[in-house]
Amino acid sequence: MKKIRTLLAFEGRRMLTSKSTLIYVIIYFISYIISVIFFQLYGSDGSVLTEASAQSFPIQHLQAGILFTGTFIAIYVAQITRQERTQSTIKLILLRPVSRLQYYISKILSIAFFSMLLTLIQITVGYLVGMLFFGWHGTLVFGDIVTSGLTGVGITFLSGVAFAFAYFAFGMLMMLLSEFLPRLIDCAAVGIVILLIGQYAEVLPSIRPYVLVHQMLFFHQDIFEMSAVYNLRSAIVILAYCLACSFAGYYVFRHEDLSV
Fold it and tell me: What pTM was computed for the model?
């Protein structure tokens, strides 16, 4: 366990201090400002916003960021898997008394942490941009929910947890696929294709609850609007993706020739 913590601590420091993370913050900041501009020009017809307040800003933008967030996760997964092998840095790690299982678990935990970090960045930047342009006054409007104050903040972060859970499952899928993709750009491209094609499942009501992209789009909203049975099924679907991709990915990694 100590070795896993050491690997995770190293990855966490690299994640928090990397230029990529700063670039993600800047991209979200710019995209949110563009959303504000369109809202001011065209109202809710030109933006995902329906309420001009910082309370509503972050939670109403979570769903809209699926392509950005999914791509960022695909790139991050490629960085900690494919890039380590192409640059031979994985050799330096595995020369130490670290098993492949410990190494793989540390990567799973890193992806979970990164999913939560991206969600926190989106919410934090959303509150910041919302306060800059609209102020804190107003209410949180999200689907059928209308509230304000700390209750609104709590709902936003609860939605963020559900959001991060679904995107963690996507990270696990990308980690499995990265075992068969030689370059970082390949992982990013495949991730984008999955995100784009997966959205077409919305026209097939019978299968869309079992499509991961559908859960990435709606799980953070469904937990407030759908029945407990429906949400439990959705959570099981997401967890099934996590477990299946984790075990399959480790099986491939365990038998992989790491001569690079």
Answer: 0.90
